[in-house]
Amino acid sequence: MPKKIKIVCFGGGNGMPKAVLSDLKNHNNVEITAVCAMLDSGGSAGRLREDYEITSPGDIRRAFIALANVSPAIGELFNYRFQAGELKGHNFANLFITALELSSKNYKKTLLEMTKVLNINPDHKVLPVTLTKSHLFAELEDGQIISGETNIDIPKHDGKIKIKRVFLDPPAKAYKPVIDSIKQADLIIIGPGDIYSSIAQILLVQGVNNAIKQSKAKKIYVCNLMTKYGETNNFSVVDFFKEVEKLMKSDLDYVIYNNRKINQLRVSNYKKKHPELMDQTLLDGIQNYGKKMIGSDVITENGPIIHDSKKLVKIILSICKQ
Protein backbone atom coordinates (compact mmCIF):
# COMPACT_ATOMS: atom_id res chain seq x y z
CA MET A 1 0.00 0.00 0.00
CA PRO A 2 1.53 3.37 -1.03
CA LYS A 3 2.61 5.73 1.75
CA LYS A 4 0.11 8.52 2.34
CA ILE A 5 1.14 12.13 1.71
CA LYS A 6 1.31 14.06 4.99
CA ILE A 7 -0.09 17.54 4.39
CA VAL A 8 -0.16 20.36 6.94
CA CYS A 9 -2.56 23.22 6.13
CA PHE A 10 -2.26 26.62 7.83
CA GLY A 11 -5.16 29.02 7.86
CA GLY A 12 -7.78 31.07 9.58
CA GLY A 13 -11.25 32.26 8.63
CA ASN A 14 -13.15 30.57 5.80
CA GLY A 15 -10.37 30.72 3.19
CA MET A 16 -8.23 27.64 3.80
CA PRO A 17 -11.04 25.30 5.00
CA LYS A 18 -13.27 25.98 1.98
CA ALA A 19 -10.52 26.31 -0.63
CA VAL A 20 -8.31 23.41 0.43
CA LEU A 21 -9.82 21.07 3.05
CA SER A 22 -13.26 20.66 1.46
CA ASP A 23 -11.88 18.70 -1.53
CA LEU A 24 -8.53 17.46 -0.15
CA LYS A 25 -10.40 15.27 2.36
CA ASN A 26 -11.91 13.31 -0.57
CA HIS A 27 -8.52 11.93 -1.62
CA ASN A 28 -7.55 8.61 -0.03
CA ASN A 29 -3.79 9.10 -0.41
CA VAL A 30 -3.45 12.01 2.05
CA GLU A 31 -3.20 12.57 5.80
CA ILE A 32 -4.31 16.11 6.64
CA THR A 33 -3.40 18.22 9.63
CA ALA A 34 -5.29 21.52 9.71
CA VAL A 35 -3.53 24.06 11.93
CA CYS A 36 -5.82 26.90 12.99
CA ALA A 37 -5.46 30.47 14.18
CA MET A 38 -6.79 30.83 17.74
CA LEU A 39 -6.85 34.55 18.54
CA ASP A 40 -10.24 35.80 17.29
CA SER A 41 -11.30 38.86 19.26
CA GLY A 42 -14.65 39.66 17.61
CA GLY A 43 -18.01 38.07 16.91
CA SER A 44 -19.30 34.93 18.62
CA ALA A 45 -15.85 33.39 19.07
CA GLY A 46 -14.40 36.56 20.54
CA ARG A 47 -17.28 36.91 23.01
CA LEU A 48 -16.90 33.32 24.21
CA ARG A 49 -13.15 33.73 24.51
CA GLU A 50 -13.57 36.80 26.70
CA ASP A 51 -16.52 35.50 28.77
CA TYR A 52 -14.98 32.12 29.60
CA GLU A 53 -11.24 32.83 29.25
CA ILE A 54 -10.82 30.05 26.72
CA THR A 55 -9.04 29.71 23.38
CA SER A 56 -11.11 31.00 20.48
CA PRO A 57 -13.35 28.33 18.89
CA GLY A 58 -14.02 30.27 15.65
CA ASP A 59 -11.36 29.18 13.17
CA ILE A 60 -10.96 25.67 14.51
CA ARG A 61 -14.73 25.23 14.11
CA ARG A 62 -14.48 26.04 10.40
CA ALA A 63 -11.75 23.43 9.86
CA PHE A 64 -13.73 20.76 11.71
CA ILE A 65 -16.83 21.45 9.61
CA ALA A 66 -14.81 21.38 6.35
CA LEU A 67 -13.44 17.91 7.22
CA ALA A 68 -16.75 16.55 8.55
CA ASN A 69 -18.54 13.57 7.05
CA VAL A 70 -22.07 14.09 8.35
CA SER A 71 -25.60 14.49 7.01
CA PRO A 72 -26.60 17.88 5.58
CA ALA A 73 -28.87 18.40 8.60
CA ILE A 74 -25.97 18.01 11.06
CA GLY A 75 -23.80 20.25 8.86
CA GLU A 76 -26.50 22.93 8.98
CA LEU A 77 -26.82 22.51 12.75
CA PHE A 78 -23.10 23.13 13.32
CA ASN A 79 -23.25 26.19 11.07
CA TYR A 80 -26.42 27.55 12.71
CA ARG A 81 -26.25 31.10 14.10
CA PHE A 82 -28.81 32.28 16.65
CA GLN A 83 -30.82 35.34 15.58
CA ALA A 84 -32.42 36.59 18.81
CA GLY A 85 -32.24 36.72 22.60
CA GLU A 86 -29.14 36.32 24.75
CA LEU A 87 -27.63 33.90 22.23
CA LYS A 88 -28.00 36.32 19.29
CA GLY A 89 -24.94 36.18 17.04
CA HIS A 90 -23.58 32.99 18.56
CA ASN A 91 -22.78 30.04 16.32
CA PHE A 92 -23.91 26.62 17.57
CA ALA A 93 -20.54 24.97 16.87
CA ASN A 94 -18.73 27.70 18.82
CA LEU A 95 -21.02 27.02 21.80
CA PHE A 96 -20.53 23.26 21.44
CA ILE A 97 -16.71 23.51 21.35
CA THR A 98 -16.75 25.91 24.30
CA ALA A 99 -18.91 23.53 26.35
CA LEU A 100 -16.60 20.62 25.49
CA GLU A 101 -13.53 22.60 26.54
CA LEU A 102 -15.08 23.78 29.82
CA SER A 103 -16.48 20.35 30.75
CA SER A 104 -13.41 18.29 29.82
CA LYS A 105 -10.78 20.82 30.97
CA ASN A 106 -8.55 18.97 28.49
CA TYR A 107 -8.11 20.37 24.99
CA LYS A 108 -6.84 17.08 23.56
CA LYS A 109 -10.10 15.45 24.66
CA THR A 110 -12.08 18.33 23.09
CA LEU A 111 -10.35 17.70 19.75
CA LEU A 112 -10.98 13.94 19.92
CA GLU A 113 -14.67 14.39 20.75
CA MET A 114 -15.19 16.85 17.89
CA THR A 115 -13.49 14.40 15.52
CA LYS A 116 -15.89 11.63 16.62
CA VAL A 117 -19.05 13.76 16.59
CA LEU A 118 -18.34 15.01 13.05
CA ASN A 119 -17.25 11.58 11.79
CA ILE A 120 -13.88 12.88 10.56
CA ASN A 121 -11.52 10.41 8.90
CA PRO A 122 -9.07 9.28 11.64
CA ASP A 123 -6.19 10.04 9.24
CA HIS A 124 -7.06 13.74 9.52
CA LYS A 125 -6.50 16.10 12.47
CA VAL A 126 -7.53 19.61 13.42
CA LEU A 127 -5.10 21.35 15.77
CA PRO A 128 -4.91 24.74 17.49
CA VAL A 129 -1.62 26.48 16.70
CA THR A 130 -1.43 27.57 20.35
CA LEU A 131 -3.34 27.36 23.62
CA THR A 132 -1.64 30.50 24.95
CA LYS A 133 -4.09 33.28 25.75
CA SER A 134 -2.30 35.89 23.63
CA HIS A 135 -3.51 38.85 21.54
CA LEU A 136 -2.67 40.06 18.04
CA PHE A 137 -1.44 43.63 17.46
CA ALA A 138 -0.54 45.61 14.33
CA GLU A 139 1.77 48.59 14.09
CA LEU A 140 0.86 50.99 11.28
CA GLU A 141 3.35 53.05 9.27
CA ASP A 142 2.35 56.17 11.23
CA GLY A 143 3.17 54.47 14.54
CA GLN A 144 -0.41 53.65 15.64
CA ILE A 145 -0.81 50.32 17.44
CA ILE A 146 -4.02 48.47 16.60
CA SER A 147 -5.12 46.00 19.28
CA GLY A 148 -6.98 42.77 18.55
CA GLU A 149 -7.67 40.59 15.51
CA THR A 150 -11.11 42.07 14.84
CA ASN A 151 -9.80 45.68 14.76
CA ILE A 152 -7.19 44.65 12.18
CA ASP A 153 -9.76 42.64 10.21
CA ILE A 154 -12.40 45.40 10.28
CA PRO A 155 -10.45 48.66 10.67
CA LYS A 156 -11.90 51.52 12.67
CA HIS A 157 -8.73 53.49 11.84
CA ASP A 158 -7.84 54.88 8.39
CA GLY A 159 -7.45 51.67 6.36
CA LYS A 160 -5.29 53.45 3.79
CA ILE A 161 -2.39 53.53 6.27
CA LYS A 162 -0.21 50.47 5.63
CA ILE A 163 0.53 47.85 8.25
CA LYS A 164 4.23 47.96 9.14
CA ARG A 165 4.34 44.82 11.29
CA VAL A 166 2.19 42.49 13.39
CA PHE A 167 3.08 40.87 16.70
CA LEU A 168 1.67 38.79 19.55
CA ASP A 169 1.56 39.90 23.16
CA PRO A 170 2.22 38.01 25.31
CA PRO A 171 4.33 35.69 23.13
CA ALA A 172 2.47 32.48 22.28
CA LYS A 173 3.99 29.02 22.47
CA ALA A 174 3.14 26.42 19.84
CA TYR A 175 0.92 23.47 20.70
CA LYS A 176 3.41 20.58 20.61
CA PRO A 177 1.44 18.28 18.21
CA VAL A 178 1.61 21.13 15.64
CA ILE A 179 5.43 21.12 15.72
CA ASP A 180 5.47 17.31 15.41
CA SER A 181 3.14 17.46 12.38
CA ILE A 182 5.27 20.11 10.64
CA LYS A 183 8.42 18.02 11.13
CA GLN A 184 6.76 14.96 9.60
CA ALA A 185 5.05 16.79 6.70
CA ASP A 186 5.62 16.14 3.01
CA LEU A 187 3.74 19.30 2.07
CA ILE A 188 2.95 22.52 3.93
CA ILE A 189 0.14 24.67 2.53
CA ILE A 190 -0.34 28.25 3.72
CA GLY A 191 -3.58 30.08 2.92
CA PRO A 192 -5.61 31.37 1.38
CA GLY A 193 -6.64 33.81 4.09
CA ASP A 194 -6.09 37.29 5.45
CA ILE A 195 -2.34 37.73 5.89
CA TYR A 196 -2.26 39.97 8.94
CA SER A 197 -5.44 39.07 10.81
CA SER A 198 -5.32 35.28 10.18
CA ILE A 199 -2.13 33.75 8.76
CA ALA A 200 0.14 35.92 10.93
CA GLN A 201 -1.55 34.46 14.03
CA ILE A 202 -0.03 31.09 13.10
CA LEU A 203 3.37 32.11 11.76
CA LEU A 204 4.11 34.40 14.73
CA VAL A 205 3.66 31.61 17.29
CA GLN A 206 6.97 30.59 18.88
CA GLY A 207 8.40 27.39 17.40
CA VAL A 208 6.39 27.38 14.18
CA ASN A 209 8.90 29.20 11.96
CA ASN A 210 11.80 27.10 13.18
CA ALA A 211 9.87 23.88 12.54
CA ILE A 212 8.97 25.06 9.00
CA LYS A 213 12.59 25.94 8.31
CA GLN A 214 13.80 22.51 9.48
CA SER A 215 11.05 20.63 7.65
CA LYS A 216 11.89 18.93 4.35
CA ALA A 217 8.32 19.50 3.17
CA LYS A 218 7.57 21.51 0.04
CA LYS A 219 6.12 24.85 1.11
CA ILE A 220 3.19 26.18 -0.92
CA TYR A 221 1.36 29.49 -0.57
CA VAL A 222 -2.14 29.83 -2.06
CA CYS A 223 -2.54 33.50 -2.90
CA ASN A 224 -5.71 35.47 -2.18
CA LEU A 225 -7.89 36.27 -5.18
CA MET A 226 -8.67 39.84 -4.13
CA THR A 227 -7.13 42.61 -2.05
CA LYS A 228 -8.70 43.76 1.21
CA TYR A 229 -9.17 47.25 2.61
CA GLY A 230 -6.97 47.93 5.62
CA GLU A 231 -4.70 44.92 5.04
CA THR A 232 -3.61 44.45 1.46
CA ASN A 233 -4.66 47.57 -0.48
CA ASN A 234 -3.20 47.43 -4.04
CA PHE A 235 -1.24 44.23 -3.33
CA SER A 236 0.15 42.11 -6.15
CA VAL A 237 0.72 38.35 -5.93
CA VAL A 238 4.38 39.17 -5.30
CA ASP A 239 3.46 41.52 -2.43
CA PHE A 240 1.33 38.77 -0.87
CA PHE A 241 3.94 36.03 -1.00
CA LYS A 242 6.78 38.33 0.11
CA GLU A 243 4.80 39.21 3.25
CA VAL A 244 4.21 35.51 3.94
CA GLU A 245 7.94 34.78 3.52
CA LYS A 246 8.74 37.66 5.90
CA LEU A 247 6.41 36.17 8.51
CA MET A 248 7.79 32.66 7.87
CA LYS A 249 11.41 33.89 8.00
CA SER A 250 12.12 31.44 5.17
CA ASP A 251 11.35 30.91 1.49
CA LEU A 252 8.36 29.35 -0.16
CA ASP A 253 8.88 26.69 -2.83
CA TYR A 254 5.71 27.45 -4.81
CA VAL A 255 3.06 30.16 -5.06
CA ILE A 256 -0.30 29.22 -6.59
CA TYR A 257 -2.21 32.20 -7.94
CA ASN A 258 -5.24 32.85 -10.13
CA ASN A 259 -4.38 34.09 -13.63
CA ARG A 260 -7.94 34.22 -14.96
CA LYS A 261 -9.29 37.73 -15.49
CA ILE A 262 -12.46 38.10 -13.45
CA ASN A 263 -15.47 39.77 -15.09
CA GLN A 264 -15.91 43.26 -13.61
CA LEU A 265 -19.67 42.82 -13.17
CA ARG A 266 -18.99 39.70 -11.12
CA VAL A 267 -16.50 41.65 -9.00
CA SER A 268 -19.02 44.46 -8.46
CA ASN A 269 -21.77 42.03 -7.45
CA TYR A 270 -19.47 40.23 -5.01
CA LYS A 271 -18.33 43.50 -3.43
CA LYS A 272 -21.95 44.39 -2.61
CA LYS A 273 -21.88 41.56 -0.04
CA HIS A 274 -18.20 42.04 0.82
CA PRO A 275 -17.44 45.78 0.70
CA GLU A 276 -14.13 45.17 2.48
CA LEU A 277 -12.76 43.55 -0.70
CA MET A 278 -11.22 45.90 -3.25
CA ASP A 279 -9.80 44.54 -6.53
CA GLN A 280 -8.47 41.43 -8.19
CA THR A 281 -4.93 40.76 -6.98
CA LEU A 282 -2.38 42.29 -9.38
CA LEU A 283 -0.01 40.11 -11.41
CA ASP A 284 2.85 42.63 -11.66
CA GLY A 285 6.38 41.21 -11.39
CA ILE A 286 5.45 37.53 -11.49
CA GLN A 287 7.80 36.87 -14.43
CA ASN A 288 10.80 37.55 -12.17
CA TYR A 289 10.28 34.42 -10.05
CA GLY A 290 10.33 31.62 -12.62
CA LYS A 291 9.05 28.13 -11.80
CA LYS A 292 8.19 29.14 -8.24
CA MET A 293 5.04 30.81 -9.59
CA ILE A 294 2.15 28.56 -10.64
CA GLY A 295 -0.55 30.57 -12.38
CA SER A 296 -3.83 28.89 -13.27
CA ASP A 297 -7.59 29.37 -13.44
CA VAL A 298 -8.40 28.39 -9.83
CA ILE A 299 -11.72 30.19 -9.31
CA THR A 300 -15.29 28.96 -9.53
CA GLU A 301 -17.06 29.48 -12.86
CA ASN A 302 -19.57 32.01 -11.52
CA GLY A 303 -21.09 33.47 -8.38
CA PRO A 304 -18.92 34.45 -5.39
CA ILE A 305 -15.25 35.05 -6.18
CA ILE A 306 -13.78 32.09 -4.34
CA HIS A 307 -11.30 29.32 -5.07
CA ASP A 308 -12.59 26.21 -6.78
CA SER A 309 -11.41 23.57 -4.33
CA LYS A 310 -11.22 20.80 -6.95
CA LYS A 311 -9.06 22.89 -9.32
CA LEU A 312 -6.80 23.99 -6.48
CA VAL A 313 -6.31 20.55 -4.93
CA LYS A 314 -5.49 19.07 -8.35
CA ILE A 315 -2.55 21.50 -8.61
CA ILE A 316 -1.47 20.85 -5.02
CA LEU A 317 -1.39 17.08 -5.51
CA SER A 318 0.49 17.46 -8.82
CA ILE A 319 3.25 19.31 -6.92
CA CYS A 320 3.68 16.21 -4.72
CA LYS A 321 4.70 14.22 -7.81
CA GLN A 322 7.42 16.69 -8.88
Task: Give me the secondary-structure topology.
Layout: E1 5-11, H1 15-24, E2 30-36, H2 43-52, H3 58-67, H4 72-79, H5 92-104, H6 107-117, E3 125-128, E4 135-140, E5 145-147, H7 149-153, E6 163-169, H8 176-184, E7 187-190, H9 195-203, H10 208-214, E8 218-222, E9 226-228, H11 237-248, E10 254-258, H12 264-273, E11 277-280, E12 293-296, H13 309-320
Parallel strand pairs: 1-2, 1-7, 2-3, 7-8, 8-10, 10-12
Antiparallel strand pairs: 4-5, 4-6, 9-11
How would you characterize this protein structure?
By secondary structure, the protein is an alpha/beta fold. Helices cover 39% and strands 18% of the residues. The protein is built from 13 helices and twelve strands. It has a seven-stranded parallel β-sheet, sandwiched between helices. Strand 1, helix 1 and strand 2 form a beta-alpha-beta unit. The two termini are 20 Å apart. The model has no long low-confidence stretch (mean pLDDT 94).
